[in-house]
Specification:
The complex is a heterodimer of chains A (351) and B (293). Chain A starts with a strand and ends in a 6-residue tail after the last strand. Chain A is 24% helix and 34% strand. Chain A folds into 2 domains: 227 residues, Rossmann fold, CATH 3.40.50.300; 108 residues, OB fold (Dihydrolipoamide Acetyltransferase, E2P), CATH 2.40.50. In chain A, the strands form 4 sheets. Chain A has a 6-stranded mixed beta sheet, sandwiched between helices. In chain A, strands 14-18-15-16-17 form a 5-stranded antiparallel beta sheet, with no helix packed on it. The longest helix of chain A is centred in the middle third of the chain and has 18 residues. Chain A contains 9 helices and 19 strands. By secondary structure, chain B is mainly alpha-helical. Chain B has one domain: Orthogonal Bundle (MetI-like fold), CATH 1.10.3720. Chain B has 13 helices and no strands. Chain B starts with a helix and ends with a helix. Classes of the chains: A alpha+beta (351), B mainly alpha (293). Chains A and B meet through strand 6 and helix 3 of A and helix 8, helix 9 and helix 13 of B. Chain A: GO terms for molecular function: ABC-type maltose transporter activity; ATP binding; ATP hydrolysis activity. Chain A: It is a peripheral membrane protein. Chain A: One of its GO terms (cellular component) is maltose transport complex. Chain A: It is found in: Cell inner membrane.
Chain lengths: 351, 293
C-alpha cells in the first residue's frame, strides 16, 4: 500500500510557477528525505503535503485517500517545525496533548497517551516544565512528541535540526533514526544538510528549481548521480568538475593522461567529474597528472589538499590520509581512480 | 577625549533634566508640601495643618462619590477599550475587505484632542437633534429626546463611552502589533491540530496577546485616572456632581473653591493610586516577560 502519492503536483504564485510537476510514490514505513538548495521547492512541497499550502494542480493521496483539497487536520499527518512551534504559555504535557484536548478526549486517556509518548522520548521528567525552561534538543523532542501522539499516517519534518548546534544535531539525528525504526512510521523529511539526507534516508529526493532531479537510495545517488547537479550536491567536499572535450568516446585534456577512460557516447564538450576521495598521490611514473598544492586544510582524520592544475581553472580538491604530510607549494604526482570517473554531457546529464 | 565626552554628556542631559525637574518634579513635590497646608492658591499666608486635609477626605461626601465614579470609570476602561480594541484588531487581522481603511478610521480619534472628542460627543448626545437620539427615533419610529449628559443616571456613563471611543483606537493598534508578533507557525499548528476559530483565539491567540493586554489595561487604567479634560468639556462633573471623578474633584476644590491645600491632598492620593497601579503593571510586565520574552 502506498503511504503517500504525489501526482503531477504544480504550484504557482500568480503567473510564477515554482513547482513544475512532481511525481512521487512513498511506501509505508519509508524514510524519504527531500534535499536541495534554498528556494528549490522542497519546503513548499512539504507544506503542500501538509495542506498548509494549496496545490495549484495535481493530486496528493495519503493512505490511498485523495486529500488534495482536504483540511490539514483531516490528512492524518503530523508536522515538526524547524522552530519547534511550541506554545510558550503551555507546559510540555499541554503542548504534547494540545490536539487531543481540542478534540475533547477524556482526561484519563490524554494523560495515559502523554505518558506513553513522554516515555518513548524519555522526557517524562520534563512534562511539567515550560518550553522556556528546556534546551533546544529537549524542545525538539517535545515537538516530536506532539507529532507522535497524533498517530499519523505520515510524519512531516521541516528542517527539524537546523536550529541546533553541531553536536546536538548529530545526537538528534541518531534519535530520529532510532525513532523511525521503533515506530516504523512513514517520514518525509526536508533538509538542506546532505549529511542528514545521506544518513537518515531510505530514499533521497533531490529537488532543484521546482523539479525532482533524482530519486533513489543515498548510495545510488552518490555513486550514480543522474546529472551534474546531483553529483555536485551530494558529497562533502563536493565533486570536482573539469571542462573537457571528447572525440568518439576519448576524452581530451591538456596535461592529463586520460585517453584510456573511454565513454562510448561522449562527443563534443563534456564535464568530467572526480570525487575528492577518488584521487590519490602516486608514483611519479604512474601518475595521471602533476599538480601544485595551493592550500591544505587539516581536518584531523584527513586533510583536504586544493590543487592547481594546467587543465582546470578551479582548484581540484583531493582527500589525503592524515599519515601523509602535504605542504603548500609542493608539486604532487596524482592519479585518478578510473572506475569512479563521472562524465556529464553539456546539458548536465550523466553519460 | 574622555573628559570632554563626560562634559557633553552632562551638558546635554542637563537641559532636559532641568526642564523635567521644573515642570514635573517640582510641582509634584510642591503638591505633597501644600497637601499639609491650608494654602488658598494665591495668598502668601498659610499654615501647616498636618494630616488635617487627608483626614477630611474620609468625611467628604463628594470625595467619596468621586472615588466611586473613578473606580467605575476604571472598571469600564479596563473592559470597554480592551474588548473593543481586541475585537477590531482580530477583525482587521483576519484580512476583511477594507481592513487597512478601517484601521486608519478607528485610529483617527487618537489624533484628536480630548476637547475635540468631547465636543463631538456633546453633539452626538444632544437631546433634540443629536445623532444618537436621531438614530433611536429612526429605529423605534417614536419621539425620543433623552438628555444623556443632563441626567445624573447617565452622565458619567455617557462620558466614559466617549472616552472609550477614543481609547479603543490605541488598544486596537497595540493589539494589532501584538498579533503581528505571534509566530505564524504556532497558528499553523492550530490548523494542523484542527482547532476551530474560537479554540484558536481562546487557547492560543489570547494567551499570546497577554503582553499586549497588560499594556492596554495599564494604559486604560492610568488614563482613566487622569480623566479630566473630556469630562470638563462634556459635563464639568455635573449634574449634581454625578460625573465627578477624583481629577475633576481635585480641580473643583483647588481652582473653584480655592482650597489649594485640600486639592493637593487629593492629588497626593491620586498620585499614590497611580503609583500602586504602575508598580503592579511593572510586576506583571516582568512576569509576562519571563513567559513570553
Amino acid at each position: 500500500m502506498s503511504s503517500l502519492s504525489l501526482k503531477n503536483i504544480k504550484k504557482s504564485y500568480g503567473q510564477h510557477e515554482v513547482i513544475h510537476g512532481v511525481d512521487l510514490e512513498v511506501e509505508k514505513g519509508e524514510f524519504i528525505v527531500f534535499v536541495g538548495p534554498s528556494g528549490c521547492g522542497k519546503s513548499t512541497m512539504l507544506r503542500m503535503i501538509s495542506g498548509l499550502e494549496e496545490v495549484t494542480s495535481g493530486q496528493i493521496s495519503i493512505a490511498d485517500k485523495d486529500v488534495t483539497r482536504a483540511h490539514p487536520s483531516k490528512r492524518e499527518i503530523a508536522m515538526v517545525f524547524q522552530s519547534y512551534a511550541l506554545f510558550p504559555h503551555m507546559s510540555v504535557a499541554d503542548n504534547i496533548s494540545f490536539g487531543l484536548r481540542l478534540g475533547k478526549t477524556p482526561k484519563d486517556e490524554v494523560k495515559r497517551r502523554v505518558n506513553e509518548v513522554a516515555d518513548t522520548l524519555q522526557i517524562t521528567h520534563l512534562l511539567e516544565r515550560f518550553p522556556r525552561q528546556l534546551s533546544g534538543g529537549q524542545r525538539q523532542r517535545v515537538a516530536i512528541g506532539r507529532a507522535i501522539i497524533r498517530n499519523p499516517q505520515v510524519f512531516l519534518f521541516d528542517e527539524p535540526l537546523s536550529n541546533l548546534d553541531a553536536a546536538l544535531r548529530v545526537q538528534m539525528r541518531l534519535e530520529i533514526a532510532r525513532l523511525h525504526k521503533r515506530l516504523g512510521a512513514t517520514i518525509i523529511y526536508v533538509t538542506h544538510d546532505q549529511t542528514e539526507a545521506m544518513t537518515l534516508a531510505d530514499r533521497i529526493v533531490v529537488f532543484n528549481h521546482g523539479v525532482i532531479e533524482q530519486v533513489g537510495r543515498p548510495i545510488d545517488l552518490y555513486e550514480r548521480p543522474a546529472n551534474k547537479f546531483v553529483a555536485g550536491f551530494l558529497g562533502a567536499p563536493s565533486m570536482n568538475f573539469i571542462g573537457a572535450t571528447a572525440q568518439q568516446g576519448a576524452i581530451q585534456l591538456d596535461g592529463f593522461n586520460i585517453t584510456d577512460a573511454q565513454k562510448a557516447h561522449a562527443n563534443g564538450a563534456i564535464t568530467l567529474g572526480i570525487r575528492p576521495e577518488h584521487m590519490r598521490i602516486s608514483d611519479t611514473e604512474a601518475c595521471d597528472f602533476s599538480a601544485k598544492v595551493e592550500l591544505v586544510e587539516e581536518l584531523g582524520s584527513e586533510s583536504l589538499a586544493y590543487l592547481q592544475t594546467s587543465f582546470s581553472s578551479d582548484p581540484l580538491t583531493m582527500r589525503v590520509d592524515h599519515s601523509i604530510t602535504v605542504r603548500e607549494g609542493d608539486m604532487l604526482p596524482v592519479s585518478v581512480n578510473r572506475e569512479f570517473l563521472h562524465v556529464f554531457e553539456e546539458g548536465g546529464a550523466s553519460l | 577625549m574622555n573628559q570632554s565626552n563626560t562634559f557633553w554628556r552632562v551638558a546635554l542631559l542637563a537641559l532636559p533634566l532641568s526642564v523635567f525637574a521644573l515642570i514635573i518634579i517640582w510641582p509634584l513635590l510642591s503638591s505633597f508640601y501644600y497637601g499639609f497646608t491650608n494654602w488658598n492658591g494665591f495668598s502668601d499666608n498659610y499654615d501647616f495643618v498636618g494630616f488635617e486635609n487627608f483626614g477630611k477626605l474620609f468625611s467628604d461626601r463628594l470625595f467619596m462619590s468621586a472615588a466611586i465614579n473613578t473606580i467605575i470609570w476604571m472598571a469600564i476602561a479596563v473592559v470597554l477599550p480592551t474588548v473593543l480594541g481586541l475585537s477590531l484588531a482580530l477583525l482587521i487581522d483576519s484580512h476583511v475587505p477594507g481592513g487597512p481603511i478601517f484601521k486608519t478610521i478607528f485610529y483617527l480619534p487618537i489624533c484628536l484632542s480630548a476637547v475635540v472628542v468631547g465636543q463631538v460627543w456633546v453633539w452626538i448626545y444632544q437631546p433634540d437633534w443629536g445623532l444618537l437620539n436621531t438614530i433611536i427615533e429612526y429605529v423605534t419610529n417614536d419621539r425620543f429626546n433623552y438628555a444623556w449628559l443632563a441626567k445624573p443616571d447617565s452622565a458619567l456613563y455617557s462620558v466614559i463611552v466617549a472616552w472609550s471611543w477614543q481609547a479603543t483606537g490605541l488598544s486596537m493598534v497595540i493589539y494589532l502589533a501584538g498579533l503581528t508578533a505571534i509566530p505564524g507557525d504556532l497558528l499553523e499548528v492550530c490548523e494542523l491540530e484542527g482547532a476551530t476559530t474560537w479554540q484558536r483565539i481562546r487557547h492560543v491567540i489570547l494567551p499570546l496577546l497577554t503582553p499586549a493586554t497588560v499594556v492596554v489595561v495599564a494604559l486604560s487604567v492610568i488614563n482613566s485616572l487622569k480623566g479630566f479634560d473630556i469630562l470638563y468639556i462634556m459635563t464639568g462633573g455635573g449634574p449634581f456632581n454625578s460625573s465627578d471623578t477624583l481629577a475633576m474633584h481635585m480641580y473643583n476644590e483647588s481652582f473653584k473653591k480655592y482650597l489649594m491645600g485640600y486639592g493637593s491632598a487629593i492629588s497626593v492620593v491620586l498620585f499614590l493610586v497611580a503609583l500602586t497601579i504602575i508598580r503592579l503593571y511593572f510586576k506583571q510586565l516582568k512576569k509576562v516577560d519571563e513567559i513570553y520574552g
